[in-house]
Amino acid sequence: MEEKLSLQEWIDLAETKKISFGDFCIDFQAKELEIDKKVLLERMEDMLHVMEQSVAIGLTGIASMGGLVGGNGKKVEVYRSESTDKSVVGSVMSKAIMIALAVGEANASMGRIVAAPTAGASGTLPAVLFSLAEARGFSMGELGKALIVAGAIGMVISSRASLSGAAGGCQAECGSAAAMAAGAAVELYGGSPEQVGQAVAITLKNMLGLVCDPVAGLVEVPCVKRNAGAAAQAMVAAEMALAGICSVIPVDEVIDAMAAVGNAMSCTLKETAQGGLAVSPTGILLANKLFAKVES
Amino acid sequence: MNIFDVIGPVMIGPSSSHTAGAVRLGNLALAILGEGVKEAVIGLHGSFAQTYRGHGTDLALSAGLQGWATDDTRIPKSFDSAKEAKFDISFSTINLGDLSHPNSVRFWLTGVNGNKCIVTGASIGGGRVVVTNIDDFPVEFNGDFPAILTMHRDRPGAIALVTSILSTQGVNVAQMKVFRKQKGGLAAMIVETDQPIDDAAFEVIGKLPHIQSVRRIQLV
């Protein structure tokens, strides 16, 4: 069993050193990996380039392997381009929704993606990072640093709970991706280390209990749209944290609560396609159709 | 665990277990065969059997058997490339029993030089895999280290001879496991090492007393 990490411990260390959480994470990770800080940042920028390509693949409107998703990122792109008055959530979040769907669809069609933290949740981080980058003109270097913050948050969640839908439900996949993205957003907007922790806590609280119930067992329905939801949750939490709002429950305790909820969750709701949407009448119908295709 | 376990890997979707893990299982089966694959008969068990088309598990296994990496953009077209290379691959569903991991696969492989092997493995999450059986011998290894697999007679000194050859070559043993079906009968040993095992050491091990066969398993 790996040692449990503590996000609060890292936050306190960064606060004591009076450096941003991003700078703390770069120092810490470069030391742990025994690589130069510059190399670490370059590798993160490589990941960002792959993410950009995933967005482009998704926006071509390709169909998925199972045929249940595809073309929705493109729909949002068209809707956004028609008129700014049409957007309910505003330009930044609308862009995030578009990117989340596009990457999720690229993944479902065997496109190349960065698992962050998983393939099923791969749309969330690019959605938040790239939509904020467009709004504020962040450089690839700044986004790379934010990605390191996201990675550090994921490491803590993995050590105390889980990042896999099979082990902890969708809260552990899309929930963790959202928490990682929320922390990254706070870092980008110059928030304090403490505020990074608050954003993580608030996000996970808002996504606690989310089940993993993929129709026909495929990473398509509801996974792709959940990435858009997760990106929005991340932005909502980042906004609250930056405004100085605190989570009543401390961040490490929230992560532990997520682990406990995941353990209490029935196996039917952890990626087995035996519960939730997967066994809705339409879910069963679609699964039977897809399995019939396999048999033939 | 490090940060690249969370941000990464770069992979072809849609699933780390059903796609990336399947590529890696193909890579391992290829390494165990030790030569290019001419014919692969593949049995898919459990969730692999039910959802392989929707996850591109079949394409991923074919890609892995051709030695491609998990982020190779040719994976969706791996059947075309197999056809061009006259590499014959077929799939069926199989029941490996309730005790098998739901994402399990069995390969019956024939190589370009006529070598054969039967390999069973499972994709256990996040792209991580484990090989559980080779040629009817229960084993357990994941390909993270270079390894040799011996089939040998279960005799005193059989194991010591192998490890002594490795030590004279400056190869450190990371972990090793020995399996046997019955006392004094045929046994198998997996030795995972920190350094690659060179041709000279590999040939000497093959000629040691009690050793029936030896395979070298090294992923690129």
TrEMBL record, chain A:
One example of a Gene Ontology biological process annotation: gluconeogenesis
GO MF term list: 4 iron, 4 sulfur cluster binding; L-serine ammonia-lyase activity; metal ion binding
Domain Serine dehydratase-like alpha subunit, residue spans: 36-278
Enzyme class at the top of the EC tree: lyase
Official protein name in the record: L-serine dehydratase
Family: Belongs to the iron-sulfur dependent L-serine dehydratase family.
Cofactor entry: [4Fe-4S] cluster
Documented EC number(s): 4.3.1.17
Pathway: Carbohydrate biosynthesis; gluconeogenesis
Annotated catalysed reactions: L-serine = pyruvate + NH4(+)
Matches recorded under Pfam families: SDH_alpha (PF03313)
Keywords carried by this UniProt record: 4Fe-4S, Gluconeogenesis, Iron, Iron-sulfur, Lyase, Metal-binding
InterPro entries: Fe-S_L-Ser, Ser_deHydtase-like_asu, Ser_deHydtase_asu
Metal-binding is among the record's keywords: yes
Automatic annotation (TrEMBL), chain B:
Cofactor: [4Fe-4S] cluster
PROSITE patterns for the chain: ACT
Keyword Iron assigned: yes
Keyword Aminoacyl-tRNA synthetase: no
Domain of life: Bacteria
Catalyses which reaction(s): L-serine = pyruvate + NH4(+)
Keywords: 4Fe-4S, Gluconeogenesis, Iron, Iron-sulfur, Lyase, Metal-binding
GO biological process, one term: gluconeogenesis
Family annotation (InterPro entries): ACT-like_dom_sf (IPR045865), ACT_dom (IPR002912), ASB_dom_sf (IPR029009), Fe-S_L-Ser (IPR051318), Fe-S_L-Ser_bsu (IPR004643), Ser_deHydtase_bsu (IPR005131)
Limits of the ACT domain: 147-219
Transmembrane segments: none
A molecular-function term among this protein's GO annotations: metal ion binding
Pathway: Carbohydrate biosynthesis; gluconeogenesis
Entry's family note: Belongs to the iron-sulfur dependent L-serine dehydratase family.
Name of the protein this chain belongs to: L-serine deaminase
